Amino acid sequence: MFLQRDLKKFIGHEFETFDYTIERSKVNELVAVLNPSSNLDFGSDYIPITFPTVIEFWGSTFSIAKELHLNLEKVLHGEQEYEYIKEFAVGDEITVAIAIEDVYEKASMNIIVINKKFINQKDELVAIGKTTIIEKF
Length: 137
Fold this sequence. Notes:
- The chain has 137 residues and is an alpha+beta fold.
- The protein has three helices and five strands; from the N terminus they run E-H-H-H-E-E-E-E.
- It has a five-stranded antiparallel beta sheet.
- It is globular, with a radius of gyration of 17 Å.
């Protein structure tokens, strides 16, 4: 069993934070991909609710799966959810704090639950993300 690698020792582990500045160009790119026929004024304040995913992919400098030495050939993205506390705004400087919330085994899989806090330049919590990674064995 892969869980015997002692993945549970990572529960509570905090990774190095990373920073991301929300730029209008990245917001526009996401809007264009999500709705190519959108008449949305690209100068508006609108930021899609899925934008934290952009922050994660463009801001992070490391792979959690690699950090945990998971078998990447057997890793699946299980679930993604966000809880919004405040609105994101163009120009926000977001710091993302990442921690392993839980690790458990279920039906021949390791399940890793990751908590991400998105904090703006005013030290305000803007959103909380929860990602579930599945490693089959």
